[in-house]
Structure to design on (163 residues):
């Protein structure tokens, strides 16, 4: 049998601490104050919020279940479930709205020689530079995305090496 009191002793502080970290870094990212390790901390340490929340629910199961019989609890939970469902729908702005995302997408599908020129490099010189980093390029006409796939890399990683 699960000892709910023992679980809550560590799960609740874990959830509180992880919430504080996740909420603070999330607000910072929202206001574009994502310097240092803010974004990395938000993405990776938010897993502790998930774990803390999960174990907090397990440790407080009876209280948790009661929220589903309370009209206010039902309404609030339903609203957030609807927000969750809506977040998967393509209703928001696409990458067309963000100039850097559009530029990256265009560069990923552009020929290597063109990207080299944009980066103010001669294609041959850049092929040698990337080759010394273990990136094999067969033809100057292949796209950055094709190069990335063949080299088991992400396209943005190749772009970062170029620029």
């Amino acid at each position: 049998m699960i000892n709910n009191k023992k679980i809550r002793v560590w799960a609740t502080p874990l959830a509180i601490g992880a919430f504080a970290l996740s909420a603070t870094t999330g607000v910072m990212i929202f206001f574009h104050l994502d310097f240092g390790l803010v974004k990395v901390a938000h993405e990776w340490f938010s897993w502790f919020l998930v774990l803390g929340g999960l174990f907090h629910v397990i440790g407080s199961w009876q209280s948790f279940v009661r929220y589903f019989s309370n009209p206010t609890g039902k309404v609030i939970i339903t609203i957030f479930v609807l927000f969750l469902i809506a977040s998967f729908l393509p209703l928001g702005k696409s990458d067309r709205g963000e100039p850097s995302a559009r530029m990256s997408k265009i560069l990923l599908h552009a020929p290597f020689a063109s990207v080299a020129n944009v980066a103010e490099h001669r294609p041959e010189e850049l092929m040698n530079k990337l080759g010394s980093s273990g990136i094999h390029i067969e033809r100057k006409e292949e796209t950055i995305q094709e190069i990335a796939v063949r080299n088991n890399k992400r396209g943005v990683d190749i772009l970062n090496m170029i620029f």
